[in-house]
User: Fold Glucosamine-6-phosphate deaminase from Bullifex porci.
Amino acid sequence: MNINLTISKDAKLNGKRAAELIANLINEAIKERGKARIVVSTGSSQFEMFEALIKLDVDWSKVEMFHLDEYVNLPESHIASFRKYLKERFVSKVNLKAAYFVSGEGNIEENISYLTKELRKDIIDVGIIGIGENGHIAFNDPPADFETDEAYKVVTLDQKCRAQQVGEGWFKSIEDVPTQAISMTPKEIMKAKHIVTVAPHSVKADAIYKTITTPISPMVPATLLKTHPDWHLFIDDASASKLFSMV
Assistant:
């Protein structure tokens, strides 16, 4: 199992430690290649990481950003839009070289084609990849498609995933949560040179336990991360609670 595990006492320290590693990896890429390309996650589990990351010493003018997913037919003005999330919490706070957004509005096939073209122009240095309550990575809910060679695809969200969005306060009810989203695929995620996962809070405890203890399986999509040559998992005491019971 390929895993570099860091457990912190709380989400704030967890986010700080993850952000420090992310900044170091970005700076290494800039030093080696003159630029860096990153993929970022969203959701409430990433709040502390972004808060810490924007304060660190990084030449953002040499960094290109992509992100993992977006709901189909959800306007950017909606509180749950990941484009809105990223612009408010990250993109507006730093001077990025470029930011490429997943859009679920308009011609989705054209949006995916353009994004794929830009994404595959060069390597991704750092993938910041969260883990959902159902074990998903991006919006690849179980059973995840580990075989597709597409970079992004339209996926149907399962009930647990949609319930998570309500639980985090993005939607008032599960009926309000879109049933489909555009998601980066598992194979594409795994192409990143380094992967950093930030997954605090007790609601993630079961997913973290299953990710670490389950053999590689599309029924627990995050288990695929264990096959990556440089995967760093940052969790807090709350999300690690089921692991402690193993000791």
About this structure: The mean pLDDT is 96. Helices lie at 11-33, 47-53, 82-89, 108-119, 159-167, 186-189, 205-213, 241-244. The domain at 4-244 is CATH 3.40.50.1360 (Rossmann fold).
